[in-house]
Amino acid sequence: MTQSLPFEITKEDSFFEKLGDYIGDVFYDILPEHGYELRDEQIFMAFQIEQAFKNKSVVFAEAGVGTGKTFVYLLYAICYARYTRKPAIISCADETLIEQLVKEGGDIEKLEKALGLTVDVRLAKAREQYVCVKKLDYLAHRTDDEDILSVHDEIPEFVYEPAASMKSFERYGDRKEYPWVPNEKWEKIAWDPLQQCSTCDWRHRCGQTLNREYYRHASDLIICSHDFYMEHIWTKESRKREGQLPLLPEASTVVFDEGHLLEFAAQKGLTYRFHSETLSSILTGYMDQDVREESLTLVEDILELHDEWFAHLSKTSKAVEGSVRKDVPRTEPMLTTAKTIAEKVDALLEQLVFDSELYVMEDYHVKIMEEYLEFFAYGLRTLLQDGQGIHWLEETETQTSLVIMPRLVEDILRKEVFSQKIPFVFSSATLSQAGDFSYTASSLGIQKYASFSVNSPFDYETQMKMNGTVTENESDKWEAMGNALNENNGHSLLLFSSLEEMNRFRDWTANQSWTFEMIYEGDREISETVKQFQRDESAVLCSYHLWEGLDVPGESLTQVLISSLPFPPNDPVFQAKRSHAMDPVTEVDLPYMLLRLRQGIGRLIRSSEDKGSVRIWMTNDQMTKYEKQVQDVLPLPINWT
Ligand code: SF4
């Protein structure tokens, strides 16, 4: 579908001149006619963003809640996509923010209504957001779990009928279509990195494939998460080499909404993830072939060492509150075994060359093995080079995975992302440290950029109250929270620093009775959880993720209770950051906590009509150390009680 520009343009006209006129009409006339306030900040932002589009450069747009920044970047992105005939990519921090943008009554729909536009917007969600029919079908024949069986029943008929015509194929399989499934059950039936999609028999009728085919043809906007955008960047070349299309099509521009979270997504996207069983399943398949004695001995040695190594990792790893990443110490035996495995894997790779020349194995098997062994050897080398990688263990009921992540990503981002001559817009309420954007820019490998900051237009003094309580005792805190909820008759968001903290509160509430609904993050699909909170005005939402992105104006949210200062967890990723900082507290912990705290408080006042209160709990030690820093980033003085 090709969309036309929302303004007249001839071959002699300059696109940017015409666009400038149109944007002026939109902000000075059309939007005010539809009841939107005329805001000088929007005009200022529009001018700054236009420069980035003209120069095809990077702009950091720091703008608080209520400045209307989304309207500005959406307008430019849509018009530029239509002009260049390539979609714009809007990359959001996570799946909740994707839904916020496209939800009924969200910014895209508002813009469509006010400007009489039909925007072709399609979602490119993370792979974990789609059901894996291969896993689902296997499990459905071995379980009596109602939640899982009802997902199986909802899968369209054509998926189970190999002879079905392609005309009957329809999109399905998005996590959102199965809101009743809790997160831990979803993991059992969703795509995971262990799935070998390129050789899967269900591939052509898999929901993920069908959804990908759909969004690829968007003419205006493709909305994805930062994680998915980074996965696209890192896999682009290898997919092309294998004759596959990149995950995302070529874009006219990329907007990073909540762009301050991009660095972590980039690191995450570059991780090497090794499941304890993958190497043995690949090499055991090799042993079934007619291979030479030398190769067999190497395979047996590798498998034995690999099992010992994973057992050692599991035994020495330690759980960390607030994180799924278990700390694995760099012990001498762990590193020595890793080194021996790496040497043997290199030797096996050499043997494979002989094996393939002697035609003792099918080419296809050799290729799969070579690819995995090279990937494994590269990960081990990153692990062995002290200071280059960050590693941790993730364990579930059924799987153990070692994850290795590079510490710095700026060089790769500079080369693979920001060398493209297209406009890049970073939008967030928190991109600078007191107007200085250099920390964000350098961590992303960006050398040249424009930047600006615009404050929120809300009158916090009349719209909001800020309270604080100092306590050492958690049960006193739960008691005080319970009272605050009752006094407000619900209508509240409770923010916790970790799942563990939320669960301790949940245990305490088991003996309480409430006159309003208590909703907990993770019990249902996240956008359904948010909808339920918005619909049921008195409900209370307990969450450990929604410090950012939740946009619920009105009576549903008139109180935000912040259970503790949101410091980063002591997990391997943050430990690595701390160990490379001159002053870990001021360079890592405080900036992270203050930014998240500002974001959390920002959930309360979402419109000029909103009113409400925030209460923060701190310990005595935190009061002594951080009271001033906390106060400095807040819009009002805290009233301590
Ligand atoms: S293609 Fe991948 S996600 Fe789809 S069913 Fe097969 S293994 Fe699962």
UniProtKB/TrEMBL annotation:
What keywords sit in the KW lines? Answer: ATP-binding, Helicase, Hydrolase, Nucleotide-binding
Q: Which GO terms describe its molecular function?
A: DNA helicase activity; hydrolase activity
| Database matches in SMART domains | HELICc2
Q: Which residues form a coiled coil?
A: none
List each copy of the Helicase ATP-binding domain by range: 28-303
Q: Which EC number(s) are documented for this chain?
A: 3.6.4.12
Q: At the top level of its lineage, which domain of life is listed?
A: Bacteria
Q: Which InterPro entries match?
A: ATP-dep_Helicase_C (IPR006555), DinG/Rad3-like (IPR045028), Helic_SF1/SF2_ATP-bd_DinG/Rad3 (IPR014013), P-loop_NTPase (IPR027417)
Q: What class of enzyme is it?
A: hydrolase
Family membership, please give it. Answer: Belongs to the helicase family. DinG subfamily.
Instruction: Give the protein name, as stated in the record.
Output: ATP-dependent DNA helicase DinG
